[in-house]
Amino acid sequence: MDNPESRVTDEVRQTADAIGTMEIRGAATIADAAAKALRTQAEQSSAETADELRAELRAAARVLHDTRPTAVSLPNALRYVLFDADGATVEDVRASVVTSVVEFCDRLENAQTDLGRVGANRLRDGDTIMTHCHSTDVLACVEAAVEQGKDLTAIVKETRPRLQGHITARELVEMGVDVTLIVDSAARRYMNDVDHVLVGADSIAADGSVINKIGTSGLAVTARDRGTPIVCAAQTIKLHPDTLTGHTVDIEMREESEVIDPDEADEIGDITVKNPAFDVTPPRYVDAIVTERGQYPPESIVTLMRDLFGEGTTEPWVVE
């Protein structure tokens, strides 16, 4: 058999490119796209044996996995699909993958709705929220609260350098929420007007630390200083099972050009540009983590994680 990497489909590579460039963004959207890309690999494969197909699927998973190292929903999706890629024949493996992908995507679709209902219970009629970046889980909480008849207003941080807060602002306006857009550095100025800070997560560690868009940790410190509750809305696909065994979360570093145009940098002179995509908020600054399974204090996340993943985990895409 030739190299499995050479058999990775164009559709898988296109999905990987879209995830890497953030054309596909948001943990649930990334997980959905990754799972469906593995289904495409299985359906289009010309492998002659079950082992050959499994090798191709692992190769496709590696291509997808390497795009966004901090977005843990991506490897969680790959784990879900590959752990059940059993069977003695190609058709058995293919059918197993298709079934797993359908189940996984159905769970994703229902999880956000359930999470929204849980998060909406924290919001009261007349509350003002502050948001950071763009989180579909946060928006699900707000949407559920609005559907309950609660009148909410939002102060939205624009979230540089990619300005994802503009997406959040637009979607909140479409829900009928009164929105004020602010620059990131104005968060403290407006914190006294805020009842809840709502943030999403790209991953959550076993100790309850929240890994989210850069600037989240500073916002959490400001919120704690002003006595404003900070709530993280995150589906369980964002729990980071590797941290159960002491694995540290890899913080993605993005292109310098997102921060400054290369020509402008040349005009300034000899500078180094750093563009970390995420930071880590310690659990002591987080009041609650809302999931589709309920609301948890950060220190209880380890129990939920063990229930879902056991004491440890493996990465099937590295198994040869």
From TrEMBL:
EC number assigned by the record: 5.3.1.29
Keyword terms? Carbohydrate metabolism, Initiation factor, Isomerase, Protein biosynthesis
Q: What functional role does this protein have?
A: Catalyzes the isomerization of ribose 1,5-bisphosphate (R15P) to ribulose 1,5-bisphosphate (RuBP).
Matches recorded under InterPro entries: IF-2B-related, IF_2B-like_C, Initiation_fac_2B_a/b/d, M1Pi_N, NagB/RpiA_transferase-like, R15Pi
Family per record:
Belongs to the eIF-2B alpha/beta/delta subunits family. R15P isomerase subfamily.
Q: Give the note.
A: Reaction proceeds via a cis-phosphoenolate intermediate.
Q: What is this protein called?
A: Ribose 1,5-bisphosphate isomerase
Organism taxonomic ancestry: Archaea, Methanobacteriati, Methanobacteriota, Stenosarchaea group, Halobacteria
Q: Which Pfam families match?
A: IF-2B
**Organism field:** Halogeometricum borinquense (strain ATCC 700274 / DSM 11551 / JCM 10706 / KCTC 4070 / PR3)
One of the GO BP terms on file: L-methionine salvage from methylthioadenosine
GO MF annotation terms = ribose 1,5-bisphosphate isomerase activity; S-methyl-5-thioribose-1-phosphate isomerase activity; translation initiation factor activity
Q: Which Gene3D superfamilies match?
A: translation initiation factor eif-2b, domain 1, Translation initiation factor eif-2b, domain 2
Binding-site positions, substrate: R25, G26, A27, A28, R68, N212, K213, K238
What residues form the catalytic site here?
Answer: C133 (proton acceptor), D202 (proton donor)
Return the NCBIfam families for the record: eIF-2B_rel, ribulose_e2b2
The catalytic activity, as recorded, is: alpha-D-ribose 1,5-bisphosphate = D-ribulose 1,5-bisphosphate
